[in-house]
Write a structure and sequence with these properties.
Blueprint lengths: L4 E6 L3 H11 L5 E7 L3 H8 L20 E4 L6 H10 L3 E4 L2 H6 L2 H9 L2 E4 L7 H7 L4 E10 L8 H5 L11 E7 H7 L5 H9 L7 E6 L7 E8 L3 E7 L11 H15 L7
Parallel strand pairs: 1-2, 1-3, 3-4, 4-5, 6-8
Antiparallel strand pairs: 6-9, 7-8, 9-10
Length: 270
């Protein structure tokens, strides 16, 4: 039997822990070997619940014993995660599309080091169709997001615009611009927009609207694509993790699916 792919997880919050639990349950061809977190003591406490506990190590050592590094870290330490993984030529599986968009020089560094970066679909549906359409000509991509107002209550960008999310009582459009601007202004909220942009016509041509709507209980994303080969619209409503309403389990499951693709003999989808 071939040796399993050794996986380390950088960032052990709600997404990283769910990925870790899936790996710990026993997935053919995959082996969890290490995790890293801002607080290693908390990570070690969570690891006590695992069937096969692994070391919790500093971020600088996350790539030491791994073939693939899963990046679940906050955007502000994205480069700190990339450095050890790229330095050792590891495969990097990440959900940080917005950070990748802001640090595109990482792609050249990874290529020079023989490192591979896999940006997972996360909670985005329809990426296969969007990527296929981009081989031809895509005329437009627009994403309209509706969010509960309090989900952006702490947004520095909204505060700078003089918008108090807590006072919004009717559907209100608070942003209309490019995917690059959305990812830059809401770096921890719009990986989805950045992923759509990178898969399609780029961050400057992809248009994003953000509405704060008291009538919705979860994030609702509608993506419309107009291309020479296809026209489609899709709506995404992701179920949040209890206690972590900013993220949903689908993001973690997308990471696991991407890891399985790295070792699978048959791959389904583009």
């Amino acid at each position: 039997m071939p040796s399993p792919l050794r996986v380390a997880i950088a960032g052990f919050g709600s997404i990283g822990r769910l990925v870790g639990r899936c790996l710990d349950s026993g997935l053919p061809g995959l082996q969890l070997v290490a995790v890293s977190a801002a607080r290693l003591d908390c990570a070690r406490d969570h690891l006590k619940e695992f069937r096969c506990p692994v070391p919790a190590v500093p971020l600088s050592r996350i790539a030491d014993d791994a073939d693939a590094v899963v990046d679940c870290t906050p955007p502000e330490i994205f480069l700190d995660t990339m450095a050890p993984a790229i330095g050792r030529g590891r495969t990097i599986v990440t959900v940080s599309a917005a950070a990748l968009l802001e640090n595109e020089h990482v792609l050249a560094r990874a290529a020079a080091a023989g490192s591979r970066i896999v940006l997972v679909s996360g909670s985005v549906g329809g990426l296969d169709a969007l990527r296929a359409a981009s081989v031809g000509t895509i005329r437009s991509v627009r994403m309209i997001t509706r969010k509960p107002p309090l989900s952006l209550a702490r947004s520095p960008w909204l505060a700078a615009q003089g918008i108090d999310a807590a006072r919004i009582t009717a559907p209100t459009r608070v942003f209309d611009g490019s995917a690059r601007e959305a990812a830059r202004n809401f770096p921890d909220k719009f990986n989805l927009a950045a992923t759509v942009a990178l898969a399609g016509i780029g961050p400057d041509r992809t248009r994003i609207e953000i509405w704060l709507d008291p009538g919705v209980e979860r994030n609702v994303h509608r993506i419309a694509v107009d291309a020479d080969s296809t026209r489609f619209e899709l709506e995404i409503q992701n179920v949040p993790n209890p206690g972590h309403e900013g993220t949903g389990p689908l993001v973690a499951y997308s990471i696991v699916a991407a890891l399985k693709d790295l070792t699978a003999g048959v791959r389904i989808g583009t």
